[in-house]
Amino acid sequence: MTETVSPPDIPPPPAARRFPWPRGLSARLLLFTAFVVTLAGLMVLPPTLAAYEEQWLLDRVRAGELASTIAESDPELRVSDSVAGQLFDQAGAVTVAVQVDGARRLVLPPKVPMQTPYLVDLRRQNPGSWLAAPFFTLTSPPGSMVRVMAEPRFRKAEFVEVVLPDAPLKAQLIAYFWRLAAITVFVAGLAGFFVYLFLNIFLVRPMQRITRAMEQFRADPADPEARIVVSKRRDEIGRAELELDRMQTDLLTALASKARLAALGEAVAKINHDLRNMLTSAQMASDRLAALGDPKVAQALPRLERALDRAITLATDVMTYGKSREPAPVVRPTPLRAALDSAAEDSGLVAAGGVALETVIDPREQVLADPDQLHRILTNLLRNAREAIEGAPDRGGKGRVFVELHRGDGLSILRLSDDGPGVPQRAQANLFQPFVGSVRRGGTGLGLAIARELAQGHGGDLVLVETGPGGSVFDLSLAGGSGAAARTRRPDLGAGRQRRALTAPAGERGRRCGKRTG
């Protein structure tokens, strides 16, 4: 039977851009620098043009003011035609007037009729009108006249007024604009080049080096050239290099660990196949020995069975954890009391003379769980509790495991408490880590790792609530806290409330790991 393998999904090519845009950081930085510097130059143009126009007009007003002083020396306070011609040629003025003591006197009258001029008062200007003045001059109709008023400098008067055509001012403004634009472009280009150069050296190139190291490391983590060389910088770039170096080191360690685990999984898979055949032969031999009826054989046979049980458990646990992932749980209402009965039986708990399970959970209580995976979790926890109690030298192999159920916040919380010696301090940090969380000598440390993974697959978790010389408490939470037949409370053991000890044969085989070991 062949299986059709569908081709991998290929992402569609990116849509073509309507406008070309550089992808590299260096090119984008160059464009951004040129844009910012050009924008700064454009922002300087309006005040520079306004200052130039103001100074140009003020120079013409001063020339008209000098004409008024000459007129005062004439008895009729008039300027001769020859002097008027010279003043007109120098200042470009059509008329000149002064106002003294509230009386306005026309010093230089116009030779021909002229159109109504627009006013520029240099005595009082707000910033907005001052900045807009050169653009108003450049956009005025051809042949316009401008009337300029300013405070006098060479005489006592209220103001000096000059009327002149704005065509020469327009020509000067246009010429000055192009000179200023050329200077601005040159300075902006030079400044932009140096800004780009320094930013490229101190920012872009280090980022490109970090990017190349990340790309090379992704392509081949084992390549020594892919490791980032940490500089001595103490800024954000230096911190990024240091963190990338640490990340690469951690990833290499994790990859090496996963490679060893993968090799171990392949080796265990091969060993497990041969080990099952060996164990089958050993079981057949033990059955034949049991049939002999020899007292010495019967005395040694339980030890052989326990050794076989441990070998089967170890091989099964390693193979179970070696799977890529646990199957998704098939959740359905599951009787909790029946699940505890079955797990206690497989965990080797006894009614008397050993470790007993005590609970007051109502037989009608149900939880939403996968029955098989719930059985694995409970068996792991109960067996570890039994092994911890039996391993305590001062307990004589006797103790109890108490189980109670609480519901709330959409969760069913199963609390398992034992009176064993507790989890050692050295094992608490790595309690749920595979191969390192074992407490029992010879354990694999897979029990709690498997149990917690299964609990999280149900939308819950498995946590160690407390531990100490008086015992340990674990909480197993499962999603779904409604629909229970009854809520349970911890019984008052001193008052002799109802208890039940769930039992199982002492020699029953176990299949999985439990609460502390594995």
Q: Can you describe what's shown?
A:
There is one protein chain. It contains ten helices and 13 strands. The protein has three domains: 157 residues, no CATH class; 86 residues; 171 residues, Histidine kinase-like ATPase, C-terminal domain (Heat Shock Protein 90, 2-Layer Sandwich), CATH 3.30.565.10. Helix 1 runs antiparallel to helix 2. A hairpin with an 8-residue loop joins strand 4 and strand 5. The N terminus and C terminus are likely disordered. The chain is rod-shaped and about 155 Å long. It is an alpha+beta fold and 518 residues long. The protein has a six-stranded mixed β-sheet with strand order 11-12-10-9-7-13. It has a five-stranded mixed β-sheet with strand order 2-1-5-4-3. Strands 6-8 form a two-stranded antiparallel ribbon.
